[in-house]
Fold 3-phosphoshikimate 1-carboxyvinyltransferase.
Amino acid sequence: MTQPSASPSSALRVSRPASSLSGKIAVPGDKSISHRALMFAALAKGETRIVGLLEGEDVLRTAAAMRALGAKISREDDGRWHVHGCGLGELQEPADVLDMGNSGTAARLLSGLLASHGIMSVMTGDASLRRRPMKRVMDPLAGTGATFLAREGGRLPLAIQGNAQPAPLSYRLPVASAQVKSAVLLAGLNAEGVTQVEEPVPTRDHTENMLRHFGAHVTVDETPDGGRIIRLEGKPRLVARDVTVPGDPSSAAFVLVAALLVPGSDVLISNVGLNLLRTGLFTTLREMGGRLDILDERTEGGEPVGDLHVRASSLQAVDVPADRAPSMIDEYPILAVAAAYASGISRLRGLAELRVKESDRLASTVALLENNGVRTRIDGDDLIIHGTGGHIPGGGLVETHMDHRLAMSASVLGLVTEKPVDIDDTAFIDTSFPGYFTLMNSLGAGFSA
Ligand SMILES: O=C(O)C1=C[C@@H](OP(=O)(O)O)[C@@H](O)[C@H](O)C1
Ligand SMILES: C=C(OP(=O)(O)O)C(=O)O
């Protein structure tokens, strides 16, 4: 497996396309669901077949890690993945360091499994992941009886001595994070008794849904203040189950915003996941006046999916409430591009979590816009963007800091600026959206590598 890295060949200059974007495409599989499918299949007894798995670098890291822990994982020529699980409590000690590349989800979720098995492991990642906080999972997971040794500030590399008889955890999330919630629930799988997580604001619930699909008993209760309490009965009999992965709404977001902004565009994105805890961007773009219709809404593999019909629209500024952030946490850089193109001043509220993503996304999104002539301001945890009414000067260089979402956002920005936009490194797009440029070019984007 090759790790994406900055190289002159991954730099890109983007200019306005010759024509509008049009056509029908499908985006790759959902990243969150793909990680979980591999992990849960590796814990189940029997053979799981996965259709539509995201074959991006992040998910390939999870596949490699689960193999190193004893699961048998193969890819068939038809694109299906087969996983022979080792069974809950049966993960084997890995012979070498587990390298999770660029993926926070892989590192955080895997920590829960490693802490709750009687094995010693060491996990690392690339320079971006080694900067990201792991204390947020180490703190609750210490309650299992596992021990952790990390670098200063709780950064990778991280050594974990897991506990073969982990204690069940009861934890209230201090930040809205599906990764922390999932790490605690995954540790609870191998613990006797009930593991409980309380989240003040609901976050994506793919772990809860898929654990049920594999046979675990999970309950979810709403709290009076709009939060949720999730309870998992430990030591379930996890049985292999086939999984169908829907298209990733977080990847669809880039195609969607490009089609809204490039004049005259008309695009259909088929088979996109519509889990309500992931669709905050769709709500927001509609509030801005975006012409976005959902067609043929259906349920596939236990998740709601549908086709998105998008037409170029005249967008107005928006005020996005902080409690919407978990349902669109990865979509702020691309929303910021839409807000820069729109008319009026937008305020995106409650973005503290953006500071601990692949890059400091609050700072890198501000730089993306400012370097291309858009006025912005950070007020506490809010981002304020002065929309240009369709006249973004451009002409700037975007530094992507090993962040795939920044690179894709910059590429969409370049489609609508007056002068071309230079992007220092697009290689990390492969972590979540392999084939991005080819797919966008099939709609008429005219990206030249
Ligand atoms: O659970 C998941 O699959 C994810 C949760 C989110 O992270 P946080 O839990 O840190 O908010 C999101 O940013 C990430 O891309 C995927
Ligand atoms: C934050 C992201 O992913 P992760 O935390 O898994 O690195 C993302 O994909 O935008």
User: Anything to note?
Assistant: The chain has two domains: 8-29+246-442, 31-244. The two ends are 22 Å apart (CA to CA). The longest strand covers residues 291-300.
